[in-house]
Design brief:
This protein is of the alpha/beta class. Among the domains are: 175 residues, Isoleucyl-tRNA Synthetase, domain 2, CATH 3.90.740.10; 137 residues, Isoleucyl-tRNA Synthetase, Domain 1. A 4-stranded antiparallel sheet has the order 6-5-16-20. The longest helix is centred in the N-terminal third of the chain and has 30 residues. The protein is elongated. The two termini are 30 Å apart. About 3% of the residues have low confidence. The protein binds one RNA strand through β9, β13, α10, β29 and α17.
Length: 765
RNA sequence: GGGCGGUUAGCUCAGCUGAUUAGAGCGACUGUUUUACACACAGUAGGCCAUAGGUUUGAAUCCUAUACCGCCCACCA
């Protein structure tokens, strides 16, 4: 057959992907059915970190897909029962923020203008389109995912898992409702978790104010109305004359107030004057000081950042307008001692497209990470059923006992450190797109109450609400027996549903009678959890170690009694060739689809694998991709040479091999052995590099060149032809996980004996 | 403030448990259109492996310190 002299990735790849999909081999059940995998073979499973349905894939996703697909293909070719589950993440705040911003740009309407139902319809529409784009891109990369098991963090089976998880944790007291200080985003009108905060540096005037005999400093004079407590370090000699609990009359913003002296070690004696007043409602550190001394807390700023009646004449004024007025008043009253205009401080913002965070004390739902409970499962190594533990301890336990290994190892330390400082996790959000909290209120008892629950902040001590938690929507109220209970309007943090990902995609929760998985909802796949959990590898970027990896460990160990995965492989960030983050504003984004279009998916994949170690950032340039495109072409021509020169070999009898022939075979076997070793140790880069080097500079440059003369010799010809075909077959097999398209395309043209229908399921010995 | 990582050819990086003439890719230069491939081939140039000490028969590799670059966490009113 006449083959073109240059490999054309663009014309080949989509057809090859179709062949793979049609073969069914991405689904391990099909592999078993068709006999390319044993039913009792060792399992290898990965859940794809679900991309957010907020737009399109970037190079980071491409790198993730390349790494995972390489591992998956390798293990599939090793004959393991291999499952890679695809899915997408609804990404609550991020997605809703994107749709809200698009809506506002288009029609100048806010979410409150269009209402919950219409906004959700818009979000779902956007999510659907985004999903389709993502799936298309994922396929373009050649990812061998089992699409028959595709999941979505917000679909019905996952919703069932979320409701069950919430209910289980609530029943054991690990989810509770509490009035605590949270990060409130006034722009998105929702709480956000500690991890979702991004600190931005800002220069703002810093004011020194006279507070009775003291000088206090602040960058936020608008919070100072209610300051009745003045705090200093108990060992500060400068203020030894003042004693804890002592009161003094102070002339303040709205006239005379009674101030109380508090001594607390949280005060830094070196900073400023060593004295500060506190605003417990709007500052975490102040909140903790107030909690320690049981001090009164007062709200100053409302949820829209407007001042409350405590501000007197300024009540109802937005703080951005109020601030200069307050400074002016301070000046008039002679309370302003001095101003430092060059003060640099850091402002907390919502990294998911929101605004400046205003801490607030609010009634929200929390996961208790330090509360003791008795462990409900048997089978988790090192913890007995009924043993007292905490969620924090579970998270530490799984890694400390080496049941979970984090690569690179140095991230284990980072992980421990993060857990040690972990506070209870606020899981309720006031956005509309997400899993609605499975909490219900009896409408008989709370007829005057307002929903959503966050609005009840005006009356935080109200304990009269009759509520209950249910995994299934109740038809009749179990409290009054007659009303239709109303569901809480809040939604859950998106990471709560992604934290269940390894098992919510494998059939959890189970029907207690049949032990069959319910979430999967497909007959024949009910044993997915038994077969594939814990998953083998969790591969993701190191930037979401805390957001996601830690939470999966928490939720999986607690809810299933199993670790979610055995190995965590953390890849680095893909940066531009100068080491800068890729961003729209810098205009340095390299789009994976562009690279695939120009150079092929194989070249794009190699450029993301070679030179990338776990945890290390990768600098990518178009030159690199072009270089690997050249390699795919080289490989194609190696294939052509072998097909042209060894095609007429008699397949029936094995010819005699010369010493050189044997050496060539042995050399290749060494390379394969080494590649195997590297892959088992997750050194993908090393494996790919050695194979690359062998194919080009050993097999092509030496063996093929030498063969040109050997093949002229009638005695030696058959032996050499045999060797060329053997090595070619092995080389295609070993390279297939890295460059699946071109190797599959060559394989189709090769005159091999007992060829499999696809290289995809050729055996890696 | 605490922690972590990096510093090897012009650029991007390998170099795993110490002994290599210190490597690869891209780029540069010279030559070659040879019937697998010019997206190629043959060759050339280019490195006191950040700095200073130490351990060792032997260090790019292990230890200590310093400098610079980067990242993460905490956060000071």
């Amino acid at each position: 057959m006449e083959l073109p002299t240059a490999y054309n990735a663009k014309e080949t790849e989509d057809n090859i992907y179709k062949l793979w999909e049609q073969s069914g081999y991405f689904n391990p059940d099909e592999c078993i059915k068709k006999g390319v995998c044993q039913k009792n073979a060792k399992a290898f499973s990965i859940v794809l970190p679900p991309p957010n349905v907020t737009g399109t894939l970037h190079m980071g996703h491409a790198s993730m897909l390349a790494i995972e697909d390489t591992l998956v293909r390798y293990h599939r070719m090793k004959g393991e029962k291999t499952l890679w589950i695809p899915g997408t993440d609804h990404a609550g705040i991020a997605t809703q923020a994107k749709v809200e911003s698009d809506l506002y740009k288009k029609t100048k309407e806010t979410r409150y203008d269009v209402g919950r139902e219409k906004l959700l319809a818009l979000v779902q529409q956007f999510a659907k389109e985004s999903h389709d784009t993502i799936v298309h891109q994922v396929k373009k990369m050649g990812a061998s995912l089992d699409w028959s098991r595709e999941a979505y963090t917000l679909d019905e089976p996952r919703n069932k898992a979320v409701r069950t998880a919430f209910k289980t944790m609530y029943d054991q007291g690990l989810i509770y409702r509490g009035d605590r200080i949270v990060n409130w985003d006034p722009k998105m009108q929702t709480t956000v978790s500690d991890d979702e905060i991004e600190w931005k540096e800002e220069t703002a005037p810093f004011y020194y104010l006279k507070y009775g005999p003291f000088i206090i400093g602040t960058a936020r004079p608008e919070t100072k109305f209610g300051d009745k407590f003045v705090v200093m370090h108990p060992k500060d000699k400068r203020y030894a004359q003042y004693s804890h609990g002592q009161t003094l009359q102070v002339d303040w913003l709205n006239g005379k107030i009674t101030a109380t002296v508090i001594k607390d070690t949280a005060v830094d004696m070196e900073f400023g004057t060593g004295v500060m007043t506190i605003t417990p409602w709007h500052d975490r550190v102040d909140f903790e000081i107030a909690a320690r001394h049981n001090l009164e807390k007062e709200q100053i700023i409302d949820l829209k950042r407007k001042l409350l009646p405590i501000a007197g004449t300024l009540a109802g004024t937005h703080i951005s307008k109020a601030r200069p007025l307050i400074v002016q008043r301070l000046q008039e009253k002679g309370l302003l001692a001095s101003t430092d205009a060059t003060y640099i401080h850091r402002v907390a913002t919502n990294s998911r497209g929101g605004g400046v965070i205003e801490p607030q004390i609010m009634r929200q739902w929390f996961v208790a990470v330090t509360k003791e409970f008795s462990f409900p499962h048997a089978g988790l190594k090192g913890i007995r059923k009924g043993e007292k533990t905490t969620l924090k301890k579970l998270m530490l336990h799984a890694v400390k006992t080496k049941q979970i290994e984090i690569l690179p190892k140095r991230f284990e330390k980072v992980y421990y450190h993060w857990i040690n400082d972990l506070r209870d996790w606020c899981v309720s959000r006031q956005i509309w797109f997400g899993h609605q909290i499975p909490v219900y209120y009896c409408t008989q008892e709370i007829s005057n109450s307002q929903f959503p629950i966050s609005k009840q902040i005006q009356n935080p001590n109200d304990q009269n609400i009759n509520m209950f938690v249910a995994a299934e929507k109740p038809t009749k109220c179990p409290i009054c027996g007659s009303c239709t209970p109303q569901q809480d309007q809040d939604t859950l943090d998106t990471w709560f549903s992604s934290g269940l990902w390894t098992f919510s995609t494998l059939g959890w929760p189970f029907d207690s009678a049949t032990k069959h998985g319910l979430a999967q909802g497909k007959p024949g796949q009910q044993n997915d959890f038994a077969n594939y959990h814990p998953t083998s590898v969790l591969e993701t970027g190191y930037d979401i170690l805390f957001f996601w990896v830690a939470r999966m460990i928490l939720l999986s160990t607690y809810l299933t009694g199993q670790i979610p995965f055995k190995t965590v492989y953390l890849h680095g960030l893909v940066r531009d060739n100068q080491g800068r983050k890729m961003s729209k504003s810098l205009g340095n984004i390299i789009n994976p689809l562009d690279m695939i279009d120009k150079y092929g998916a194989d070249a794009t994949r190699l450029s993301l694998i070679i030179g990338a170690g776990p945890g290390n950032d990768l600098k990518l340039s178009e030159d690199r991709v072009r270089g690997y495109r050249n390699f795919t072409n080289k490989l194609w021509n190696i294939g052509r040479f072998v097909a042209m020169n060894a095609g007429d070999l008699d397949l029936e009898k094995k010819p005699a091999l010369s010493k050189e022939d044997k050496k060539i075979l042995a050399d290749f076997l060494n390379i394969r052995k080494s590649a195997t070793k590297h892959l088992e140790a997750f050194r993908l880069s090393q494996a790919a590099e050695e194979l690359y080097h062998y194919a080009w500079h050993a097999f092509a440059d030496k063996v093929l060149e030498d063969s040109k003369t050997v093949l002229q010799n009638a005695q030696k010809k058959a032996g050499r032809q045999f060797v060329l075909k053997e090595v070619m077959r092995g080389l295609l097999t070993c390279l297939h996980p890295f460059t699946p398209f071109v190797t599959e395309a060559i394989y189709r043209e090769m005159p091999f004996q007992n060829k499999k229908d696809l290289l995809l399921v050729e055996t890696w010995k």
